[in-house]
Amino acid sequence: MAEQAYTVASDSETTGEDKPTSVYPELAIGIDIGTSQCSIALWNGSEVQLLQNSRNQKMMQSYVTFRDEIPSGGVSAHLSHEDEMLSGSAVFNMKRLIGRADTDPVVHLSKTLPFLVQTLNIGVRPFIAALVNNVWRSTTPEEVLAVFLVELRAMAELQLKRVVRNVVLTIPVSFSRFQLTRIERACAMAGLHVLRLMPEPTSVALLYAQQQQQLMHDNMGSGSEKLALIFNMGAGYCDVCVTATAGGVSQIKALSGTVVGGEDILQNVMRHLLPNLDNLLSSHGLSEIKSTVLLRIATQDAIHRLSSQDGVRVEVDLKNGLNINRVLTRAEFEEINQEVFGKCENLVRQCMNDAKVHIGDISDVILVGGCSYIPKIRSLVLGLCNKQEPYLGMNPLEAAVCGAALEGAVASGVSDSLGALDLLTIQATPLSLGIRADGSNFVPIIHRNTTMPARKELIFTTAHENQTEALVAVYEGEGMGVEKNHLLGCFKLVGIPPALKGSPEISICMDIDASNVLRVFAGILMPGVGRPVHPFLEVKMPTVDDGHGWCAEALTKMYGSTLELHTSQKKMP
């Protein structure tokens, strides 16, 4: 029997037998688009339900194939992901590439993927292409995600018999605001409206809060605050979170994240098995692509088997006279990926330090994501938290999407008579926000892990005599210098009264609302009075589109230090 095709229904097409069967016609769905896998869920009135595709799969491969005029994704594809990769027509790992410039190390590491990734190293979007009928067809991460989202939306509409418009998406902690705008753009291309973009461990924290609330009700108790450490590591990213939970309320104490995941582990093992891996794909011919894919498949299989075995045999014919036939031990695997595991350890330590909690304060350790099945990862995180076993109340692969579905119900205004949706998440800023000042230094105004919504203000002053203009360049990140951080946007403040350097008072205020929208306010204050000389400027960030690398260099070349700001010794009242 042929697989049923997915089609997107318009508002006017949901008539007759296709009338919505849901009692919540505007209920938002939760989507977890992972680097390698994706899932979709919603609140069905009594619990979270994961939707399945026509092959009864809850977890679907996150890839898009460009075989014909109309690309298709892993939701409804007839062939397996491996078959599509062998042809060079499958594009994946877009969650790692979206919103990144071609100077980003993550982009350069992606050049060993079995499709085309080219860079000019000038700070613009990388060139990505799939092989279609022996021609490289260019695409973008946003287009790939949009195609996949269209299929997910169509699948949901087919099962729910209603139009799906609103979504809650999970995102990595380390995503910049520029990357968030790219995710929103992909959703808009797919006809979806984003209600929330939730950091993945925050989504898991919401699910944990609901489970603890339900446990409290079952035990007829009032419940006490519990601290949990959430470790989430998938194919593309690693996130850590410390949350305090009581009575359905989850307060995020600290967040930390970085771009390291199963893809890095896979690439390390592939390079160990085939040291000249980079040369294999130098020409990106079809035979080279097939050899790379065969090695990738064999390596993935070996890593999976090493989760339950001490050693496995890797045997693969890569064609072109290349053969691999050897034993890979778990000890060898752990040695190869020592740097990855070290980064994971540093994230956990950093998060616990930021949250100001002691090991003995942690009640539960929650391990989620595909890499949580790796024995070394499990023992490392549990050892750092002095625990013997992780929290077993949720599926590691489904936890994030279940939390997103709960947030979708809460954000849609759905209530539950039993109080299952009486939930609240008090979120925190995952990255610091500030401006360039004192040369090329990054001066944070809103620090990482500040409770949201947040509003903070700092006073700056001029760097030169009779300076009448100032450049406000807004950055996001944790680096001491701006070159280590991400430029969100910039604007000029004019009309500064001529005066000795260090005399004018320039107020820079940053405001993050409950929807995580960042606005920057800037104005010149009258010394000793505090009233503005001119109306304040209000700028919504980010303002920089593609080419933010170029933009940062252009600002330095154009203005140098002539419009520079310095931090002021004046304290805010």
Look at the structure and give the mean pLDDT: 89
The proportion of strand residues reads 25-35%
Instruction: Quote the distance from N terminus to C terminus.
Output: 72 Å
Q: Based on Cα principal axes, name the global outline.
A: globular
Query: What helical percentage do the residues reach?
Result: 25-40%
Give the class from helix and strand content and strand pairing: alpha+beta
Stretches where pLDDT is under 50 for at least 5 consecutive residues are 1-23
Would you write up a description of this structure?
With 573 residues, this protein is an alpha+beta fold. Strands 1, 2, 3, 4, 11 and 12 form a six-stranded mixed β-sheet that branches. A five-stranded mixed β-sheet has the order 18-13-14-15-19, sandwiched between helices.
List the defining traits of the structure above.
single chain; 573 residues; alpha+beta; 5-stranded mixed sheet
Which helices and strands, and how do they pair?
Elements: E1 29-33, E2 37-43, E3 48-50, E4 60-61, E5 63-65, E6 72-73, H1 81-86, E7 90-92, H2 94-97, H3 105-109, E8 116-118, E9 127-132, E10 135-139, H4 141-160, E11 166-171, H5 177-189, E12 193-199, H6 200-218, E13 226-233, E14 238-246, E15 249-258, H7 262-273, H8 277-280, H9 286-305, E16 311-319, E17 322-329, H10 330-336, H11 338-355, E18 362-368, H12 375-384, H13 399-411, E19 424-426, E20 433-437, E21 441-446, E22 454-462, E23 469-476, E24 486-494, E25 505-512, E26 518-525, E27 537-541, H14 548-559, E28 565-567
Helix pairs in contact: 4-5, 6-13, 7-9, 11-12
